[in-house]
Amino acid sequence: MTTRYVAAIDQGTSSTRCIIYDRGGVMVSMAQRKHTQYFPEPGWVEHDALEIWHLVERLIPAALASGGIDPSELVGLGITNQRETTVIWDRTTGIPLHRAIVWQDTRTSEMVESLREQGIGADVERRTGAPLSNYFSAPRLRWLLDACPGSRAAAAAGTVLFGTMDSWLVWNLTGGVHGGLHITDPTNASRTMLMNIETAQWDPRLLEIFDIPAQILPEIRPSLSKVGATVTPVPGIPISAMIGDQQAALVGQTALRAGESKYTLGTGGFLLFNTGTTLVRSRHGLITTVAFQMDGQPIRYALEGTNPTAGALVEWIRENLGIIDTAAEIETLATTVDDNGGCYIVPAFSGLHAPHWVSASRGLIVGLTSYITRGHLARAALETNAFAARSMVAALNDDLAAAGVDMSLTELVVDGGMTANNTLMQTIADICDVTVKRPQMAEAVALGAAYAAGFSVGLWTDEQQLRRNWHTGAVWKPGIDPADRSRRVANWSMAVDLASQWDPA
Fold it and tell me: What CDD domains is this protein classified in (predicted)?
């Protein structure tokens, strides 16, 4: 009997991976490559979409070869991706008209503020489930169409296509200029600020607000569905799932039922809480978003909190301050001191996100005295993730209570590269006053894309099969005095208030 495997393309902010899993959810092989980060102006972040596609062309064969796997043994391929990153390309040449604008980019802040001053923020949030913000794709897409010469005329002529990275990769995988599929799924479409959260279709009023021609948009299909097969680089692999990276982590953590959640700590920190088929509208600064959609079934919704600068802060410290040589050293340095020495970091590199949403804010370090050492800075950098998590957990529970939903978050199930930092995990438990659980398989994004792809083609037929693959790796419980917690949270809140008032000339 032929062994059956499922593969995932995990297209992330800093790198792209192809990982192959067996039916037990065990990683069989992996190929990974980093791509170039471009920072052409302050607040601008770009990727070369063509570079990323060429990486994928090499990664799929490399992962197959590494595992000694024949392509015929792959029953499904799942695509997961950084979500709000925006690319437009010429459908006749396959060449992007501009480098992709990354989800961390802030160039559209003034555009968004101008739209907000027109009084349309409430309407946008009602239609999308998300606050009007430069975080989402629509302002970037408008910027691209305005900035790239001839792009609007080309769009009217039907030769320009838009997509988030899932659309770009699937279009290329399925033939590109030779009939490639131009599609996306509701998890990614919900991050564009162009999809109606209730209908899961492109919203004409939103297209009007952002001046986006409908003909450039991809078709929205269920996250877990058989959409086609690869043409290149390895022909004939069924593409059976497309899902945004944070929603993929929700699936990878097997948080498939209402009331289940996950907190991913990678480049950013993302809390998702599954609300099932109930659409819970946030009143406390979170995003009402799509969790996933299975073919032929109603959409599952989620509440989401976002902190775009988790691991990104550690990388900034490594690259720009030079006080550590590797990201892992941040924990060693942080443990050289007992506390943060009164120092707090608010890493609002792209503004304050959930639950604050102040686009003009910028990062700051407060509480500096001559007493502060590198160790205090390292500990403050770790603690900022715990404070951000607490803000999101509080907003989430307030939203659930306000909606009269009989659910709440009482523990954090974590995943992502930063969860290897045990000091950070204990700090999150202390500050959030909840139990923190880390699974043995702490990288859930690619696993979730693989689960989604396998579920679509019947490799798994029951969610209990997936749950049996989940095993607790470590547990942390709160261990600090409540008065100390309250003091530290109050100091953090003052720091956030200072950042929110930052309005440079």
Answer: ASKHA_NBD_FGGY_GK
Q: Are residues 294 and 410 in the same domain?
A: yes
Give the residues across from 143 on adjacent strands: none
What does the pLDDT read at residue 2? 66
pLDDT reading at 1 higher than 50: no
CB-count exposure of residue 427 (10 Å: 0-12, 13-18, 19+): buried
Query: Which are the contacts of 320, defined by CB distance < 8 A and separation ≥ 6?
Result: none
**Residue 186, preceding peptide bond in cis (omega within 30° of 0):** no
d(CA 68, CA 406): 49
Task: Specify whether the CB–CB gap between 327 and 378 falls below 8 A.
Answer: no
Residue among 393, 365, 476 at smallest CA distance from 427: 476
**pLDDT tens, 323-363?**
888 988 999 999 999 999 999 999 888 888 889 888 878 88
- 63 inside domain: yes
Name which of 195-199, 468-472, 486-490 the model is least confident about. Answer: 468-472
Residue 505 lies in a domain: no
Q: What CATH code is carried by the domain that includes residue 364?
A: 3.30.420.40
Six-digit token string for 281: 């509208």
Per-residue pLDDT of 144-170, as tens digits, reads 999 999 999 999 999 999 999 999 999
Asked if residue 70 and residue 45 are part of one domain, the reply reads yes
Residue written as token pair 């990323």? 52
**365/368 Cα distance (integer angstroms):** 7
| Residue 113 near residue 145, CB atoms below 8 Å | no
This prediction has a pTM of 0.92
Structure tokens at 426: 């204990």
DSSP-assigned letter for residue 352: B
Name all contacts of 433-437 with Cβ < 8 Å and 24+ positions apart: 433/478, 433/482, 433/485, 434/393, 434/409, 434/410, 434/478, 435/410, 435/411, 435/475, 435/476, 435/477, 435/478, 436/411, 436/412, 436/475, 436/476, 436/477, 437/411, 437/412, 437/413, 437/472, 437/474, 437/475
Q: What is the pLDDT of residue 148?
A: 94
Q: Which domain holds residue 367?
A: 309-388+482-500
